[in-house]
Amino acid sequence: GTKYGCGIGGCGACTVMISTYDPVAKQIQHRPANSCLLPICSLHGAAVTTVEGVGSIKTRIHPIQERLAKCHGSQCGFCTPGMVMSIYALLRNHAEPSMEQIISALDGNLCRCTGYRPIIDSYRSFAREPTCCQLRGTGQCCLDQEECVCSSSTGDQTHSGLCNPEFPPMDPTQEFIFPPELMRMAQEQLRTLIFHGKRTTWISPTSLNELLELKAKYPKAPLVVGNTSVELKKTHHDAYHPIILHPVRIPEMYVVSSTDDGLVIGAACCLAQLRDILMEAVPKLPEEKTKIYQALLQHLRTLAGEQIRSMASLGGHIVSRGSNWDLNPVLSVGKSVLNLASEDGKRQVLLNDQFLAGCEHADIKPKEVIVSVLIPYSMKDDFISAFRQAESQKNALSIVNSGMRVLFSPGTDIIADLSILYGGIGSTTLSARKSCEKLIGRQWNDQMLSEACKLVLEEIFLPSSAPGGRVEYRRTLLVSFLFRFYLEVLHGLHQMVRTVYAHQHTGSDNTLSQEKMSALVMLPSGVPQGVQIYQDVDSGQSPQDPVGRPIMHQSGIKHATGEAVYIDDIRPVDGELSLAVVTSIRAHAKIISIDASEALRVPGVVDVVTARDVPGENGKDEQAYAEEKVICVGQIICAVVAESVTQAKCGAEKVKIVYEDLEPILTIEDAIKHKSYITEERKIEKGDIEKGFESADEIIEGELHVGGQEHFYLETNSVLVIPRVEDKEMDVYVSTQHATDVQELVASALNLQSNKIMCHVKRVGGAFGGKITKPSLFAVIAAVAANKTGRPVRFVLERNMDMLITGGRHPFFGKYKVSERRNTKATTKLPWGVDVSGLATWSDTQG
Amino acid sequence: GTKYGCGIGGCGACTVMISTYDPVAKQIQHRPANSCLLPICSLHGAAVTTVEGVGSIKTRIHPIQERLAKCHGSQCGFCTPGMVMSIYALLRNHAEPSMEQIISALDGNLCRCTGYRPIIDSYRSFAREPTCCQLRGTGQCCLDQEECVCSSSTGDQTHSGLCNPEFPPMDPTQEFIFPPELMRMAQEQLRTLIFHGKRTTWISPTSLNELLELKAKYPKAPLVVGNTSVELKKTHHDAYHPIILHPVRIPEMYVVSSTDDGLVIGAACCLAQLRDILMEAVPKLPEEKTKIYQALLQHLRTLAGEQIRSMASLGGHIVSRGSNWDLNPVLSVGKSVLNLASEDGKRQVLLNDQFLAGCEHADIKPKEVIVSVLIPYSMKDDFISAFRQAESQKNALSIVNSGMRVLFSPGTDIIADLSILYGGIGSTTLSARKSCEKLIGRQWNDQMLSEACKLVLEEIFLPSSAPGGRVEYRRTLLVSFLFRFYLEVLHGLHQMVRTVYAHQHTGSDNTLSQEKMSALVMLPSGVPQGVQIYQDVDSGQSPQDPVGRPIMHQSGIKHATGEAVYIDDIRPVDGELSLAVVTSIRAHAKIISIDASEALRVPGVVDVVTARDVPGENGKDEQAYAEEKVICVGQIICAVVAESVTQAKCGAEKVKIVYEDLEPILTIEDAIKHKSYITEERKIEKGDIEKGFESADEIIEGELHVGGQEHFYLETNSVLVIPRVEDKEMDVYVSTQHATDVQELVASALNLQSNKIMCHVKRVGGAFGGKITKPSLFAVIAAVAANKTGRPVRFVLERNMDMLITGGRHPFFGKYKVSERRNTKATTKLPWGVDVSGLATWSDTQG
Question: Which domains, ranges and CATH numbers included, belong to chain B?
């Protein structure tokens, strides 16, 4: 049931629940986790619950599954097992969660079909807040009425279709218990765990001393807790570590203590723990001490999803120093201190901009590990704020983030100290250190702001060719954050003035203008307020007639139990091979040679397949395998089939392609210039064009640009081809919106009659138009390999390959021209939204 | 492509070609072999060619395959790969074989569909005799005519459809060569080969001395050459040997030499070699010396099939002393001598009735091995004959066989010595030793015969309860053989008299009466003379219209290449289990208990399935799994599913059933008495019955008995059930004539709608009515097991289980009564062949 969605902990489709027993606290901890990031070694002593363990049609459907299905929370169903697991992990920890917890639990789960509302609605019934049907906001709750029917504004009879649902209650006694043998194991005396892999040795020490010894012995070995950052480097940069240290059984690294200076948090604590600790601490402390914690909480609520937050450690977050890691700038402006240890003893370093930039004198040494982090209390005259701007409010890396702090000389608005740090600008966190220094002693007013903006933009220089692009936008964010910080502090100063200094000043300066106040309003981030209402069916309608009734997806229950079979869930077939493709790294080039000799020497590699192996037609509008030249980056050149996916990928990396570059066409405008069209130009004309424009009183004309868009169907393109033994027949199991096209292209590629190709499409894990033409090419790729080797071939694209190869919905470019005659009844009005796809062209960056 | 047909070397469906290199003779030997009998250890150094190696659609179809397919030599196609292999092995040894060799090569291949004629016709084109179309015997060969059309007796236009076929010629250069590495291996210095299995160690020594040492060390270890007899004991009696000696590399055991006394043949020579040696020797020797060899040849031509003859050794044939082994009585009357060897030295023993009965003083000792056999020349006054009666002329164990020899005092018809030995009567070969002694000195005349018959019947006593039944028939054969021997000898004596003693006697006695001579005529055993002719189609018939044309079976080529997929050829499915059944050993009994505990402990056994595991209907007219009682021997009681067939069978043997016997119903008459009917009595009536019989001049009435009959479809009942993951759907791949019945019974057994069950029938390897109702029950057996375990289940019956469980076509019993009135035009004539199946009953021996 667990699904592969992205491989980088970004979509939550692979969520499972990890349960461990803490022998000291005598507590079982349940945590949601992205299984794509979980090294198997890290699971020693842990119980893993997948969606199958929650409930199944064969045994018992869990209320989480039933309610999600019956409340229309599944459409394509591919994200559904992950949704179930996220809520399941939540409910195992909190039997009566708040709506905020429910929303938060789903932060890390992407859904492309539902828009989330039905999913959240289905889980509303588990919330401790009173819930009812979906007619909230109408002023009358259906539960208070005899019939759940209300009159909508149009006067039609409507009802929610979901009100007062008779769901079986949760019964926690029916849940799986934590395996007693694991509990016993956790209580036994600890011993060092060592796992030897082919390339990597994984060591889990039992004490800090042992860890420090190991770190001295293997200074290059990373400490891995949640594996959320090391794994990504492995996946994307093929980084590999001969030794990995796994410090999850060292009590010192899980310490949580409150000192006179602040809170000390163990470096191995995960971000969700940090959040919970801070949420518990804030109400208990004087408000002035908690400004830093509130700033951190602001980020901790939006950073990644609950799965990542439950696995990623505070120490890992700090030490891996990603430029768009949100907490570091805030921790830095809060003057946090890292407690380090090594064989040579303990020491403390300041987590500042120099540490974050990896400056040698400010950094930890190879033998050292971060044991814990001191996050000092903020002071009375401190103002600390955290900012982030991302593509979505949650579960997205920030584009730019920031931590800002100002300390005023007591009782004044004179800047005594100022720190401004930015993430997302350079390769490390950057500090506007010089600007801040220059501003010390200045008053907090508009002149200071204006000066500050100028200084910051000068100091935090972002060249127009900066990696990551969107330079203008990011530069704007630099000063926007600063402007907002200015206002927040100003507002805070005014508040203080009103309450403390009321006797000294007059009232005129003491409030922000309404315009400025509007900049301080937070975007709503709570529970979605959307409501779906259903038109009531005529009472005379036959109960068998489904039209107009809200009917559960036929596979809804199976989606929720993980029993719905998608292509990659099909049981392995005897003799099955895995396929990996080699794609073009050039936008436009001649293929001079393909050297597969080294790939063929990789153990497990069975064959390398190229355009020469296609017995018939090599694709239709596009070539399946590139022939003499490539016309875009990501075009498939050849395929490696091997006994395992790993071997196939390894083989693909070993194929050597020699290119001879040609001039690339990179934009639509370029393509038009080169007359490089896919189809004929499309035009929509209405009226007598010539006459119309001649006699026009006014002519409106212009251009229309629509950007490209990744479809991001949650199920990546997947195909399983099984050659039958007789008559070259083939079964093609494929995730496609256009089965006939698959059948025809495969048959024509293999030079067979179409009736020899059986194309099976049981269901598709999302498509959105993205699986109309491309799946046929992938099917051809796999079918040609199966035909050549005589063995079944499975070809499931990894997310990055899917995005690279398919290229998503094309960008569009259109022109419009409309004429209008005034003072006459005969007007020519052309639709503004002309279908401009006629100008989609062969641009070389993507098909 | 190689097929399982019987598992005991009886049907030839599994024929492969074994090629070995003889480094002394510098010759490659190709031999056909039943792979079901071949221990893998015996193949060290051998090249095995299966039908895939002969030719395939993917590469090149071999002429043997093409001609067999195009000449309509395949129908169900299951025997076809074996047919191809038998002829292939022949052609590799004899590029231009005689028709006799071709017929003989196919002796060991059963076909249930074609009647053999089309198979032999297709291979006629390889024979060195002139061949043409199938119009032999019409006096005009179509090859001599312009058009291959002749007028049949009815005057219709007919033609063979096969004349002058344009087949591509054989091209021996295209055959696989013997692997050079094996040739090299054979030439290298020999070393002892030892294979250690789980239970058995297999040792192949390099010299006679080494063999004798091993035999001394392991006196109980059998010597295995072709494994044709040891394997059967293993299959049927679970006999097992911790040590097996394989003496195929010992030159002394392959000796062929001619001495003053006779021919000495190595004990490891196979029967086909013996045949070839004798056929070569006979024409070269004076006729009087060869009488024994001719008698042996008579049996060697009919004994078993070419595969068995090519594998079974002379020594093995002698020493295993099967009562219906044909050669022993003949070798014994020929006074053959066994050359034995042991560590203690060499000695000779007479192969006589005492040796054959295993009498201790006449037997070989545990440490001894038979090195070779001396078959002495016969003498001038010898008459030696060999007799066998079997269910078919070839490839069937004899019911009774015999060797007889008489030596006359020179120049007389006075018996000087007489030996008569019978096989197939008792558990060993029996000698009419006393009778023979009494007859010495008697003249060879009718009185002697009459006395001899009396004596033999007294001495060779066959009680009416003798194992094997058919006592009357066998007793008849005892004297029939004797009578025939009497006539043969008498005829021989007359011939001699006519030629040698013509001067002494008058002519009246010198010829046998025509009636007696008729008893000496041999049954025709040569080339079938059948002809198939095809009606010519109208010349106006569209070429696309197939009606009336002789069209090759659509799968003909695939049958012949082995590429046609039958149930058991379907690739293994991931997680697939094998199923073995436990059947009733009682004719009628209550099942008191089923104890599966020991079976479940067998490694690999996954589950034991009984009637209790059937969620729905347990069969329709018959129970699939027996419930409270069994009503016949062979009724399925439960099923064991395991990771492998061996494990499943092992588990099935460990299930303990406790029965409480009930009175059995064993015959149809019994069943009628107990009113134990399957269906209502069936009657066919015609005319006014009452009136008809009242006014009848004559009433004819009687009973009609038709015996039961095994269908012997070459493909045993086979089913593969693959549960789909969703909705309890199942794919059922089954060999059946009635797919709907399978679908309905499986659905009802699993309590599912029929549309959840996909029943796939691609082809059936023979059925003949035997796969109408039974396959549904086997499908239910497997489907219930698959449903319980959630895993795919394959259930392929072994031949003995298939015959035991299905019971074949029932015996029938019918009554008829016909009235007739004479001298009137209104006669009532009832069909004689009334359908009497109405009286088929539940008899307990078989369903």
Answer: 15-174 (1.10.150.120), 189-245 (3.30.43.10), 251-462+470-518 (3.30.465.10)
**Contact criterion met (CB below 8 Å) for A643 and A586:** no
The crossing angle, in degrees rounded to 10, of helices B739-749 and B774-789 is: 40
B648 Cβ neighbours under 8 A, 6+ residues apart: B577, B578, B579, B580, B604, B605, B640, B641, B642
727-756 of B, contacting A, C-beta below 8 A: 727
CA separation, residue A833 to residues A669, A680, A818, A829, B406 (Å): 20, 19, 12, 12, 114
Distances from the Cα of B116 to the Cα of B120, B578, B668, angstroms: 6, 34, 35
Give per-residue pLDDT as tens, B249-303. 999 999 999 999 999 999 999 999 999 999 999 999 999 999 999 999 999 998 9
By the 10 Å C-beta count (0-12 exposed, 13-18 middle, 19+ buried), A821 is classed as: middle
ipTM (interface pTM): 0.75
Specify the DSSP class assigned to residue A569. Answer: G
Query: In chain A, which residues have their Cβ closer than 8 Å to the Cβ of B574?
Result: 571-574
Residue A11 CA to residue A5 CA, distance in Å, equals 6
- Long-range (24+ apart) CB contacts under 8 A made by A42-47 are A42/A224, A42/A227, A42/A246, A42/A248, A43/A18, A44/A193, A44/A195, A44/A204, A45/A20, A45/A21, A45/A182, A45/A185, A45/A186, A46/A18, A46/A19, A46/A20, A46/A182, A47/A18, A47/A19, A47/A20, A47/A178, A47/A179, A47/A182
Q: Which tokens sit at A457?
A: 């933009």
- Full-model pTM: 0.83
Q: What is residue A827's predicted lDDT score, i.e. its pLDDT?
A: 46
Query: Distance between CA atoms of B661 and A239, rounded to whole angstroms?
Result: 74
CA distances from residue B56 to A290, B12, B88, B183, B239 in whole angstroms, order as listed: 81, 20, 14, 26, 39
Is B565 in CB contact (< 8 Å) with chain A? yes
Taking CB atoms and an 8 Å limit, are B725 and A575 in contact across chains? no
Cβ–Cβ of B573/A571 closer than 8 Å?
yes
- Interface check for A758 against chain B (CB to CB < 8 A): the answer is no
- Closest Cα partner for B842 from B622, B662, B636? B622
Nearest-Cα distance to chain B for A256, in Å, is 47
Backbone φ, ψ for residue B333 (5° rounding): -65, -25
User: Mutate which of A569, A574, A729, A752 to test chain B, going by most B C-beta atoms within 10 A?
Assistant: A574
Is A574 an 8 Å CB contact of chain B? yes
